[in-house]
Each structure stands twice: as C-alpha cells, then as structure tokens.
Design a protein that fits this description.
hydroxypyruvate reductase [NAD(P)H] activity (chains A, B); Rossmann fold; photorespiration (chains A, B); D-isomer_2_OHA_DH_cat_dom (chains A, B); 333 residues; homodimer; NADP (chains A, B); alpha/beta; 7-stranded parallel beta sheet; 13 helices; glycolate pathway (chains A, B); 2 domains; 6-stranded mixed beta sheet
C-alpha cells in the first residue's frame, strides 16, 4: 500500500514538508493537489489558536520549501524562523511583499507565477477600460435602482476608437493588453525600462511623457522602489480632465491620496482600479464616485488560471526536491 | 442677410420642413445642426400640450421628410396623418418599430443609421461579455457595499480564452465583435441567413445548432418576424447551465419570460442585456440577479457616434431635397 517516498522526503516521512504561508482569509485553491504530493504544514489550519511565529519555531525548523499564497508579506523576521528554508514558491506574479534581499543573502530561491495570470489580467485591464469609458457598472446600478424608468437616459460614455492608450510596462501582461486593444481602434504607446523593437507601438522614455500623449494610462508593471508612486501629481496633471487610469499592477504604483483628490475635483476623467495601496481597505471617498470602477484584486483570478497555477506550483516543488531546474525563477539560490 | 433657399424648400419659406418624431424623454442630440439647415417641426417642443396627432393634422400636411428619433413606434396610423411624406430618416440601425409595409405601399423611402453605431455596439457587446464572465459589475457593487473588507474574496469569474462564442447575425456589428474577440483567444462561430465565405469563422445553419456548440451567444441581428424570440426555451436548454447570452440587438430576440426563469433556476450561467422587450420596463426579477449585467439600451450611444449620426442625417435630408441618391437606404420609394 505504501507508495515510493517522494524524492527529497524528510527522513522518517513519506513526503517532503511544504509550508503554506497565507492569510487565514486567503484559502489555497489547489490545496488538495499539494496534499497529494507533500506533507502540508499550514499554521492557519494545523494550529489556528497558536501565534504563527510560535508554530513556525516549533514545527518548521527543518522545512526547506514554502508556498507563499497571495499578496501576504514575507518579511525577514518570518524568514529567520525558517533556518532550513531554500525555496519560496510565490503564487503571485508580483513578489514585492517578499523580502528578496534577505532571500538573496540566505541563498533562498524565489519563483513566481510566471505568465500564468498574464492573459486573465490583460483581459481584466481591457474590461476595466471598457467599463470606465462606456460606464457599464454605473449603468447597471442605474437600471437596478430604477433610475432608467424614473429619469430616462443614462449619461453617455465614450468611444474607444481613436483613444490614445499608454501602457506602463510592456511585459507579459502589457503586451497582451496591447494586442487586445488594437481591434478596438485604440492607438497604442508604452513606457518600459527600455525600448522593445519587436513591438510596433510608440515608445516613450518616461511615464510623464507617455501620459502627456495619452487619453488612457494602463498600469501593468511590477511594483519596485523605482515604480512606487510612478503615477504622481505631475503625471495626473498632464493626463488632464478627460484622462483615465486603469491599474491592474499594484496599488503602490499610484499616489492614491492624490488620485482621490484628482477624481473628486473632476481633474481626471475616471479610473478602473483592481488594486489599492492598503487592500482590502481603500479611501472611503472612492466608494461614492461614479467615474470609478472598483474591483477586489480579482484580475488574475479565474478557476482556469488557478488550475494552471496548481500545476506550476507542484511541478516547481517536485523539481526542487529532485534537484531539477526551477521554472519562473525570480532569483536563484 | 437672407441666405439662398435650400433646394426643395417649401414655397414661401427659406428652408424645407423636417418633422421630428420622438418621445418627449428622448432628446435629439444634433437638433442645432438640423436647425442650421431646415425648419424643424417638433410636436414635443412646438406644441407640448396638444395631442401629437392633432399637431400633425394641423401643421404637417405638407411635410415631406420625417426624422424618427430612437426606438419610437411609427405606425400606419401616424403615417396616415402625413399625406405628403416621402422620406423617413431613422436615427437607429434597427427599424422594427417603423411600419415598413405602409411605407412601401405609400412609396416612402426609409433610411437607417447604417454602420454609424456598429463599432460602438460591438465594443459594448464585448464589454458586456467581459463583465458577465469576469463579474465586474457585481465586483464593483461588492466593494462599494463594504463586502470585500467584511467577507473577503469575491466569487471567481471565468476565463475568456477557449470559450466557444456563437454570434447570431454576422453583419456590421457581429463581424466587429468577432474581430475584437479573436485576440482574447475565443473560438468564434456564427449563424446568419447564409454562409459568409469571406469570414474564417465556423457557420451553423440554425441558431439551435449554434447554441448547442457554444458557451456564449451574442445577439447582433435585427429583429424581424423571423428572428422574434429566436432565443427560446429550446435554445436556452442546449446552452446549458454555464451558458451566457449577450443581447445588443433588440429585446424581442429573446423570450424574456423564459430567460428570467432559466436565470433564476441557475439553468443559464448569466446574461448581459442592453435591450429588453418593453423598455424601459423589465421583469423585476432581473434586478435582483447577480449573474446578470443590465444596461439601459446604451450600446450605440457615445458623443462621437451621435456626431457622425448628425452628419449622416443632415446629408441624407439634403440629398432628398436635391433629388440626390440617399445613403443607408433600408427600402426605396
């Protein structure tokens, strides 16, 4: 009945330990798949009443691999409770909440979700843009509250054809966004660290310059020290009062306090926001604005992408325990 | 100071009469442009307290051209009050509310909005599909009512890639929808009166057959005697419980009572509806459903498309009064 021990199994156990690092509210959608192959340690379910650090100190001293679920912080303090750790498998594309410097110093490899979510996020960015420009979510509220019957026509939205769309970050997500927007007749330009000659779109060396030539900015880049608050007061000013900002990257890309002021004063046309600086909190003022579409960090989330993510995670953990090469490496050991 | 009379002007006046036929709640967005060229008769503003038929009988006996604004009925009874009428310029693409038989018998030419709205409607169809599949409008409501903070994650939507999308009516709008959905990785098929070999998509000779092979149906056809309730109980049954219906055509294409039942019983996955059988009324049950996106017949409406429509309308009226050929002729004299 006993199966062959997995390669890399801890002595005395059939399967290697894998620590799941998550917020209690954030379930791992492919937990069953993980349990098929590994002994899963999960402080949230194994010992919900014990402080996480106590559980880690007591139980995870020999743990060599950790799955970091969703956008939960993984700071140096937590990493120091895991002296044997050699691999962090992030289930997200962005790894800005993981202390990469500590990992580098400790020789801990870090992998991310790679391109698993790129198409879904790109779809969502286009959906947010359509929603803001054509006022779908406000129209749906308008109909549901009976205003169509009572007050007649809903205010008009705007046409997509001819809109100058500036994409900030022409990576996996940004390039999918561009490809999707072309048949709508949008005119695409972009900013990225360097010009990408394989794409036919106009390049701007600065976000400010891109914004000055755009009706719409779509944020698809990662959050780093350099990109934090890349959308600041100056960028919003040059976008002007018809300008629209779509954010499917990270909340920290935008100076959120300034954004709220610009939207409330009508100095920006609208925004479609899937991410916020302090999720799930957000500035209360946003909740009352009709020129904003709000979304609970859902761009990447479809059952189909979770399935692909489960396969990638298990395959990377198996590779690690068999000393095989890792996929989607953000930084090596 | 007096300008040259327009060709075709009524005797004694500088400009030919044009009758505006509209609902009081439905303003003509390019009225000023019309007034630049014609003497506009508008019962709603010229004589708001008089019954429309009395105004027409009294004032419009010599009127040769009528602009039919939005989806207002133009029945034989009304047409009979206008013995000199020779042209109906519809501002819509669909002319199902105009008595075309009476027009034909009387030798009244009818023009429509042609392709003016095709791209905006196609954009909106894609927006509705993205909204239903990725649950944007419900997500926006979820965030605004504080549920993200209180209850955590919003239910997942579905991926676009790989979805079998069936387009009912591959005309101006349908073909624009298809072109837009290709980069999302959707697999396109269609039904229309006849196969269109210039398009690379799979053809199904019946809507029932198309539905049986589709995850999504997008209704882009005109409403005629043949297409009324083309989406009936049988079609909804073969779409199955994950199936989605998007309607940017006319409400009468769907058996709305059946649709409500299917949606409430969870026997359809969802619907995105811009049009309804008895606008602006709709079945109350729809207002409470979360798998439905509701829109107040807005697909065609952007300031940019209204501007183009104004130009088309004036150009057709000028052509008529100069005995020049008409554009967008639905049926000739």
């Amino acid at each position: 009945m006993s199966s062959q021990p997995e390669p890399g199994a801890e002595p005395g156990s059939g399967r290697p330990d894998v620590l799941v690092h998550r917020l209690p509210s954030f379930a791992l959608p492919f937990l069953a798949l993980l349990c098929d192959h590994f002994t899963v340690l999960d402080p949230c379910t194994d010992s919900p009443d014990e402080p996480a650090h106590a559980f880690l100190a007591r139980r995870a001293g020999l743990t060599r691999a950790l799955v970091c679920v969703g956008p939960i912080p993984l700071p140096a303090d937590t990493l120091r409770l895991l002296p044997s750790l050699r691999l962090v498998v992030a289930t997200t594309t962005g790894v800005d909440k993981i202390d990469l410097r500590e990992c580098r110093q400790r020789g801990i490899a870090v992998t991310n979700a790679g391109t698993t979510f790129a198409e879904d996020v790109a779809d969502y960015a286009v959906a947010l843009l359509l929603d803001v420009l054509r006022r779908m979510s406000t129209a749906d509220r308008y109909v549901r509250e009976g205003s169509w019957l009572k007050n007649g026509d809903h205010p008009l939205g705007f046409k997509l054809r001819g809109k100058q769309v500036g994409i900030v970050g022409l990576g996996n997500i940004g390039s999918h966004v561009a490809k999707r927007l072309q048949p709508f007749g949008c005119d695409i330009a972009y900013n990225s660290r360097s010009k990408k000659p394989s794409f036919p779109y106009r390049y701007h060396a600065s976000v400010h310059d891109l914004a000055a030539n755009s009706d719409v900015l779509i944020l698809c880049c990662t959050l780093t020290e350099e990109t934090r608050h890349v959308i600041d007061r100056e960028v919003m000013t040059v976008l002007e009062d018809r300008g629209v900002i779509i954010n499917v990257g990270r909340g920290g890309l935008i100076d959120e306090k300034e954004l709220v002021q610009f939207l409330m004063r009508g100095e920006l046309g609208g925004a479609g926001l899937d991410v916020f600086e302090d999720e799930p909190n957000m500035p209360k003022e946003l909740l009352g604005l009709d020129n904003v579409v709000l979304s609970p960090h859902s761009a990447a989330l479809t059952p189909e992408s979770f399935e692909a993510l489960g396969e990638l995670t298990v395959s990377n953990l198996k590779a690690f325990f068999s000393n095989q090469p890792l996929s989607c490496l953000v930084q090596g050991e």
